[in-house]
Specification:
119 residues, 7 strands
């Protein structure tokens, strides 16, 4: 199998864009103490999201909780760790997800991502 050709075919499906954020230790310039700040690691990376399981509706009197899982397909050299925060844009809609453990292939990686939000 020609891995490069196979990868090019997969990447033609990448119609979405993803920014990966991770908490990084940084020194606060005012207090001089080291704190964890959310920093972008990879910005505007081509990717593809796909719904993995149907949405679960957690309707209560106080709120309607939306919970569902999707899968992210992205290039294998983009470093994603479990717990990273992802911002994925499809067309004009941007949603935030939390990354699960990535599964690497030679042509791409698949990451289970979960969105938790309220309607």
């Amino acid at each position: 199998m020609n891995i490069e050709r196979h990868r090019r075919v997969i990447e033609r499906l990448y119609t979405d864009r993803c920014t990966i954020y991770r908490y990084q230790p940084m020194k606060d310039p005012v207090t001089k103490e080291t704190k964890q700040f959310l920093q972008p690691l990879h910005v505007d990376q081509p990717c593809r999201i796909s719904q993995r399981a149907p949405a679960v509706n957690g309707q209560t009197e106080a709120q309607n909780e939306i919970r569902y899982e999707t899968k992210l397909f992205i290039a294998p050299e983009v470093e994603i760790r479990q717990g990273d925060l992802l911002e994925v844009t499809r067309d004009t809609v941007t949603r935030r997800y939390t990354a699960g453990e990535p599964f690497l292939y030679s042509t791409h990686q698949e990451v289970s991502i979960q969105r938790k939000d309220w309607a």
